[in-house]
Amino acid sequence: MKIIDFRFRPNIPSTVQGMIDHPVFGEMHALFKFHERARSQPIEDIVRDMEAQNVVKGVITSRDAETTYGIASGNKGVIPFLEQYPDRFIGMAGLDPHKGMDAIDELGLMVETHGFRGAAIDPFLAKIPANHAKYYPIYAKCCEFDIPVVISTGMATLVDGADPEHCHPRYIDAVARDFPKLKIVVSHGCYPWVNEIIMVVQRNRNVYLELSEYEQSPFSEGYIQAANTMIGDKVIFASAHPFLDFKGQIALYRKLPFSPQALENIFYNNAAKLLGL
């Protein structure tokens, strides 16, 4: 069975060390003992491991939270992977909504010059909800390019000043209604609002969901039940590699009580449709 991993960062040495020493997420990584299980590899070995697991595409989601947290854009760091393995990796350009038209210019450069296939935003780091007007030029440009936007959600554990309320499903629902042609991927399950995000995905044709890091959290059985019934064509696989090893996450999904058809859709079909593969 072919697999598309929608949240995959190659665990080269600089990436792993950067996660351990990260000025914003380092404390969270330490809490979950990432430094004890972290393993770096040359890119050639990473690609071989992907081939062995039949992971045909890895989506590298970048980030830019320079205005609020001093996290400069990681887009330039993604470019070498796309250049070296253009058929293996897909880039999503991280954008800071507070940068205004500079963010739009960045998206255009990454898409038109470097082959990125989408955008990525982090409302909890930007400190504004997903339906804030500062995002709307980004959404409009994504519609113009016909590319998806990844909206990162989750609890931002131990991230000072981050407000998880900015990731509430109600704001994503508002964006989906205002931009019905915008392809939206909700990253990290919008946890803990399990029931709410399931209904947002179900009621909007243009909203997709990945569950990375929260597949076994309390109430996560709702995700699985919904994938087997209500939103089987909208859930996509994402490992959050290397924070969680992609091989272990693939094995986990095979053990979770997804129906065979739901699992095939999650691993490949839904993401392939979303990406136009």
Descriptors:
about 280 residues; alpha/beta; eight-stranded parallel sheet; globular; hydrolase activity; Amidohydro-rel; ACMSD
Fold and architecture overview:
This is Amidohydrolase-related domain-containing protein. One of its GO terms (molecular function) is hydrolase activity. InterPro entries: ACMSD, Amidohydro-rel, Metal_Hydrolase. Keywords: Lyase. It comes from Bilophila wadsworthia (strain 3_1_6). The chain has a single domain, classed as Alpha-Beta Barrel (TIM Barrel), CATH 3.20.20.140. By secondary structure, it is an alpha/beta fold. Helix 7 packs parallel to helix 9 (136-145) and helix 10 (169-178) runs parallel beside helix 11. The two termini are 16 Å apart. The protein contains 14 helices and 8 strands. It is 44% helix and 12% strand. An 8-stranded parallel beta sheet has the order 1-2-3-4-5-6-7-8. The longest helix is centred in the last third of the chain and has 16 residues, at 260-275. The chain has helices spanning 13-20, 26-31, 34-37, 43-52, 66-69, 75-84, 101-112, 123-126, 136-145, 169-178, 194-203, 221-228, 246-255, 260-275; strands spanning 3-5, 55-61, 89-94, 118-121, 149-152, 184-187, 207-210, 235-236. The chain is globular.
